[in-house]
# Entry
Amino acid sequence: MQSDMRTLEWDEKEGELRLIDQRLLPGRFEIVTCASVTDVIEAIRNMTVRGAPAIGVAAAYGMALAARQLSFLDVSTMRAELYQMADKLQAARPTAVNLSWAIQRAREAIDQPVSSTEELREKLLSLAHAMAEEDVQVNLRLAQYGASLIEDGDTILHHCNTGALATVDWGTALGAIRMAHEQGKRVHVLVDETRPRLQGARLTAWELQQYGIPFEIISDGAAGYFLRSGQVQKVFFGADRVAANGDVANKIGTYMLALAAHINDVPVYSVFPTSSVDLSLQNGDLIPIEERDEEEVLGIQVQGQPATPAGARARNPAFDVTPHTLITALVTEKGIVYPPFRQHLPEVLQR
Ligand code: MRU
# Structure
């Protein structure tokens, strides 16, 4: 990506987390620095950093920052304070399970025996570094699997942003498309705008431009037209949480897209790291769905004017659940999972 900067990076000299500000792209490339866990919580909430895997690793650095702030305490008081911070971080956004997964790993590190607060502090920072590196390696592996499903000449419809920006680097569904492109396959991407925050039109289009992958942006409502008219060979998207039966929570609009693809016999692939799987939930109806501020819908402007009448109200669920019956295969770093997912998903997770 631009300046070769990863989505999030640790600044060793300053002891701060640096984030690409995803609210401003593609118009402005700016960096936000987080010097405290509170800064990280706010950056996750306001979507400076977004995308399930990126949120998880940002939270891990949030825990490292919390430990730095608390280093004047004794070990047991520090542990108690860190648990509280962990709860606050976990509540920042409810749907992406990668956040709870990362916090759980931090909790396990906090519980390990240490002889000083300094040791605990270092443990949490090392964990965050390890998770950042792991994320990139996992993405490269799942992208290889995803790319194997893509054929030369495919037009792929993609929803939201699942690229380098949604992860530490490389990406999931978009990472698979990028991998196929780098393998020399000719791919064309139809980029869903992804209303209301336009992660597709703003971020995916920005990334594809940099990778030199041909694409066109379409309004979300145009997806059905392209699928029915035979202009799309595959649908690719990511996941924020995958239930035990293979139901997938992902960016709002994914369900309608999968429905339209299914009825038109276009294969549907959800690409994600196994850290997005939540086997504790039997089905997708149990996944908590974040509802964001109505201003994200009402604030849209047309020709410099508000697009909606003053006083109008809006609903703004940020995610929806795509039932497993609409999904052709789930793609993870441990392999491609085909139905029945309830049987095959746990088998693949154990690899
Ligand atoms: O609200 P966002 O932008 O954080 O939502 C992101 C998505 O829904 C992505 O598709 C998902 O996190 C997978 S990203 C690899």
